[in-house]
Amino acid sequence: MNRTIFITGATSGFGKAIAEKFAAIGDHLIITGRRKARLEKLSNDMQKEFGIKVLPLNFDVRDKDSVFREMQNLPEQWRSIDILINNAGLALGRDYFDEANLEDWDTMLDTNVKGLLYVSKAVIPFLKKGGGGHIVNIGSIAGKEVYEKGNAYCASKHAVDAISKSMRIDLLRHGIKVTVIHPGAAETEFSLVRFKGDETVAKSVYTGFQPLIANDIADVVLYCANLPDHVCINELTIMPT
Ligand code: NDP
Ligand code: 8X3
Question: What is the 158 CA–ligand 2 centroid distance (Å)?
């Protein structure tokens, strides 16, 4: 469709699946993540397969200076952006509140909340340049409910829900739509990260039911992004049955 889509956390899971969906319909992509080799491979693969343009940007969303520097240094042909997808995020640990690790709490809040704020603030001028645009934030069922040992992760995703609502109000005057998608359990690298590389525990999260897969969420994001300008899906919660 010849739009420019900016996707954070495109090196795996939802972000990668979302990138491939937009690429398949001819949109151009700015993809981000910390794992440079993966980012470059995805970028090359999509350019070859779909004949689109891709700009890989390798930075940590927690690093405020990097976020703003990358955006200030955007090449001229990438300085108008149509859609921002704030997807980068993680859970770390699953512990009782009183036993949880403070560094895990800091990392989750710095990534899921402050990282999303920094990226949004840095990208919004480029959405305005395109005369409107759309922000899609990836929240979580953990942003609508809380569960045992979910403490700071749930808090971070409740913050994403609140930020989405406040963005929608404040950005309306610029014609920028805001959608928040709240997925339930999906089998990506999410649990491997949460349980710090313990594959057995990560796998056990998805036993006894059929989890969502990244493509399920990517399909929904694409649907929301392809609606006419006057239609905004504010919020969707998507659960595995
Ligand atoms: P993955 O672990 O597969 O992907 C997470 C992505 O976020 C990676 O591309 C990772 O890239 C990126 N990321 C993490 N931290 C940073 C950082 N500090 N700076 C830049 N990029 C970062 O998990 P999912 O695809 O499942 O998760 C995507 C989003 O969906 C997250 O916000 C998660 O909270 C949310 N979510 C996930 C659910 C699930 O069950 N899987 C359900 C509901 C919501 P890299 O490591 O290369 O930096
Ligand atoms: C990820 C879904 O249920 O593990 O956000 O919190 S859950």
Answer: 12
Q: Is the Cβ atom of 156 under 6 angstroms away from ligand 1? A: no
* Distance from residue 62's CA to the centre of ligand 2 (Å): 21
Residues in the chain where the model's pLDDT stays below 70: none
Distance 174 CA to ligand 2 centre (A): 32
Q: Is 118 a residue of the active site?
A: no
pLDDT tens string 180-200: 999 999 999 999 999 999 999
Ligand 1 atom closest to 8 (CA)? 21
Sheet holding 176-183, edge to edge: 54-58, 28-33, 4-7, 83-86, 133-138, 176-183, 235-238
Which listed ligand is nearest to 87 at the C-alpha?
1
Q: In this predicted model, what pLDDT tens digit does every residue of 123-170 receive, in sequence order?
A: 999 999 988 999 999 999 999 999 999 999 999 999 999 999 999 999
How far, in Å, CA of 100 to CA of 51, rounded?
47
